[in-house]
Amino acid sequence: MAVSQIPRVRGTGHEVGQPRMAPDQDGNCMLVAARDAPGRLDWTAHDVMQADYYEMECPVTTGFTWWRCSEYRGGRLKTTGKMTGDSKFTLREATKEQIKQARKGHAASWAAGLTVEQYLGREEHIASQPLTRNGGIKFWVLTDATDPTKVLCSCETMAKEAVVRLRNGGVERTLSHVIGSVFTPEKNRGRGYASVMLDKMTELLDGVCLFDALYSDIGKRFYAKKGWKPYRSTHISLPPAADDIPSPEGLKMLMDNDLPELCQQDCDSVIKDFATRPLPENVDVRVAYLPTYAVMQWHHAREEYVGKHLTGKLATVKGALAPSGKTWCIWTRTFNTKDRTQQKLSILRLVDEDDNRAEEKRKDEIIKLLRAAQCQAQLWDMKEVAIWNPSERVVKAAEKIMGREVKVVEREMESIASLRWNGDGKGETRVWWDLNEKYSWC
Description:
Number of helices: 8
Structural class: alpha+beta
Helix content: 25-40%
Order of helices and strands: EEEEEEEHHEEEHEHEEEHEHEEEHEHEEE
Distance between the termini: 49 Å
Largest sheet: 9 strands, mixed
């Protein structure tokens, strides 16, 4: 087989002419193959490690392909031939038509009672919000590099404001990206396309943000192997209020126009806390997504669109504020006429500002907020009130309402909060993800 000149690849010291093995970032051996490499390679190799096989475009020069070893027999490299040797992949921003086709593909899984056209409308609506317009959300597809119209899988990235506290005391307000809607059409599953796409996404994001995140619905292991560490993903649930229980007195029910000022107050308080509170000894970096008004708007745009189409009504109450003005919560409703057991009211953000109030007073105000959420859940036929990663005080308030112990559920498969640190230290850095509440999800 004719072998083109082999480029020097990331310090592996290749000599011109002889294909040799180069380690990838996971320590697996990769073969740099020639442009005209056939689907089944059979070259002499040295120190070959067994690993799952896949191929990806060589980052050094076009025309070359990296192959991960599939097996090693008597000094000969064997590949499975699953993919042709001249096949390469490209991660690119999707065209409008590719976005539409991808959304049609995952409508069956995520439409939750909407028709396909209504689902497409929802996605366009939430992509046009202040948080997501003008490049705030980007749509990505993995394609065959020789045929950009052939979409193999897709995902989205959403930019969100975040704050980072470093060990040296520096505090940085920055942008971080959250990956969502990772989807492979059924005909393309089982071929490793999503794995290749995520590898390419990590290369892209490494030079863009200090950290990025995603929420896994396939457990903890797959994304952890790609560098996204699973974090505490717990919740508690409360039932909707009984029909004869009135909404608590003394609360201010929050409308949309109440939220900008409260969200700004919240963000200012978070940034101040990051700047003044020392890091624990076992933490190198503290990070959080900021609970901005734009984030809440995005959640409520989704809620309002789906609610209008499935119920014909508009949910205007967005949360509740306690009498002290120091404690409040913002919520959203998930409508699902396909499976009504999935209808829930989720607390996006619960603020309990630290001040001189007595512990019992702080807990009593949280109890009122949770009761108000239960009443809203009953009003809108929600099956539960869900609070992600509740504090000990919130758990005790819930137990006071229920008159018994409330189970804190540790999620193992769905909505697993996962974060990848891209700054100094990479995987060795001990990162504390603070304020890991529902508002951070997308």
